[in-house]
Write a structure and sequence with these properties.
CATH superfamily: Zn peptidases
CATH architecture: 3-Layer(aba) Sandwich
Number of strands: 8
CATH topology: Aminopeptidase
Radius of gyration: 22 Å
Number of helices: 9
Largest sheet: 6 strands, mixed
Amino acid sequence: MHWKKLQQKIMKIMSLIWLCALFLSGCSSTIPEFNGEKAFEYLKAQCEFGPRNPGSKGHTQCKNYFIDFMGTHGATVHTQEFPVEVRGEQYQCTNIVASYYPEKPRRIFIGAHWDTRPWADKDEDTSNHETPIMGANDAASGVAVLMELATILQANEPEVYGIDLIFFDAEDAGSYGQNESWCLGSQYFVEQYSGKEPEFVIVIDMIGDADLDILIESFSQKSSPALVKKVWDIARKNDIHAFSSKMTNYIYDDHYPFLEAGYEAIDIIDMEYPYWHTIEDTPDKCSPKSLQDVGTILTHLIYE
């Protein structure tokens, strides 16, 4: 009799353990899958507007497209309007901020610039040097990843972080060798920002190259080595070989104003792109797989 009662107790305990395991399994968070093919469709959709340099028809149309898209994908959207002067001409530019789960005190900023170079001044054919570029990789690729992240964030609330997706304008009309003539949108954003301080900032730029090779950018490593390690560790754990442990040069990009203001920030960028600032920067030079790789790392960073 004593043995039978002991067996019954053991069975009850085993049943409770099994039920607890089942419950915990059902409650465990899973990392959503990033869809590179969908992101590539967003890349092509931007290019269908044509060049998106300030003052162009494509610039106005694409701005409205982004605002509508983010608003219908669960974000709280606000814009920053600011004037810029390019070669003596005045233009109105717009940063777009799409906030997810704004009530969460812990924040991450993920940003990309959405404007395109007004002149193909690196084209081999000098007759194209005044022609605006299509900008499939620079910068539709980074924005395409933000757009697919938006669809994921709408359906999946992160356990820890609220996310602000930032579309920077006026990054790409600078003069070579004059750093502060570039990244005017991110400079303006940092100067004006007074909200919750992000734990870190990640900028993605030129990440759609079909031959993707992302080296560690030197400003990022110097100022935010722990964040670099965190991102590159995710790449290693997920066998994403496009992220190299080699160092690249110091690159003045939209992360730099954040670093200058004391934020932890890094730039994910592949500068080895032969079509940079040429009329050949078109969607056929880009790859869904490259978008998939970068998007997967960011998704793991948000949800792990």
